[in-house]
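Lecture notes, continued. The same structure-token format from the folding unit now serves as the input rather than the output. Read the line below as a description of shape only.
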């Protein structure tokens, strides 16, 4: 199912996000330091949604400890909710993942995850909100 785009100015996103460091991660493609995100060790059931637009992205049942220092998931809720973009920054070739509705930077996806998908969505905690009511 296609998601209608949400477009705002940087000032509007700053007002919604609040924290400047989180704004840099979500809207400018930054990365939080390993093992510092609020969801790295989170075990509560629920749905992880985009911090910027609340689009459901990952279920807690697909979260696992990848040892990377970031929350990791082996599958998204809806493949059309996550956009993939080739990323050649920092001397590497990676696949960046963004929210398909608001283009918020989420993190990267790698082909070294567990079965059944073999994927590791390595996501910044700053890009997510956990809704425990959807457990």
């Amino acid at each position: 199912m296609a998601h209608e785009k949400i477009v705002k100015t940087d000032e509007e996103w700053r007002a919604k996000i609040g924290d400047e460091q989180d704004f840099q991660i979500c809207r400018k493609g930054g990365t939080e330091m390993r093992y510092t995100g609020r969801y790295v060790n989170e075990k509560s059931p629920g749905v992880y949604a985009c911090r910027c637009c609340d689009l459901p992205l990952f279920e807690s049942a697909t979260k696992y400890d990848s040892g990377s220092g970031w929350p990791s998931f082996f599958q998204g809720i809806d493949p059309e909710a996550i956009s993939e973009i080739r990323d050649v920054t920092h001397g590497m070739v990676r696949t960046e993942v963004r929210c398909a509705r608001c283009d918020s930077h989420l993190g990267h996806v790698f082909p070294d995850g567990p079965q059944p998908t073999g994927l590791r969505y390595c996501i910044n905690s700053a890009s997510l909100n956990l809704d425990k009511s959807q457990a």
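Point for the exam: The chain has one domain: 10-134.
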